[in-house]
Write a structure and sequence with these properties.
Length: about 240
Amino acid sequence: MPALKRSAPAKRRTLHGPALADAVTVGTTLNEAAYLRIEEMIVTLELPPGSLVSESILSERIGIGTTPIREALQRLSREYLIQILPRRGVVVTSIDVRQQLQVLETRRELDRLVACAAARRGQAADRSRFAEIARTMRQAVSAGDLHAFLRADATLNDALAKAARNEIATRTVATLHSVSRRFWFFHRNHNPSGRSDPNNTMRLHLAFAKALAAGDEAVVALACDALIDDLVDFARSTLDAN
């Protein structure tokens, strides 16, 4: 298990679960570790919509003290994944296709801005990181490992934020990625007529990561738009089905 730096006093320091072990790296703070684990639990429906939990329940479940849990929940509230209920705990928010379409409308502009900035300003180390993430994504797609793919997608977003060197844009768009991933995971088996392949979204993510590794801004912009186009098409198809 990688060593974790303490970001705040915590009663527990033991981390549980292979998902957390895969998600964290050396130097990850307890705050970040708590966020990564709870975010994955929500995105992959381990904590389904409507679930009511508390700081103490989550602390016991993942083995991290309540202070990092509290910080993680505040962040997840800003990302539209939970609602904090005073004196009652927190409830996981519902999955809403209309909200997803609003998220994607916003992401289209911000994702392209961040991606193009990352292609333009990225250094050799950034491009090497994108190539590494692309390899991880390819392995996840080949194995059909959705959890590994979602973690690679989250890692790609973090790498993009560093390479873009635009803190305002990256902080703004970061609040939208998790809710979008959860929507896709929830509807992942939905394959209406007109959509050639339910795995198309994963392949488009892979193409986007490869474009970033190559560092061609024009190709990156096209790959980014193609990915958002696919996500919008997918979201609308679920609305039509309802």
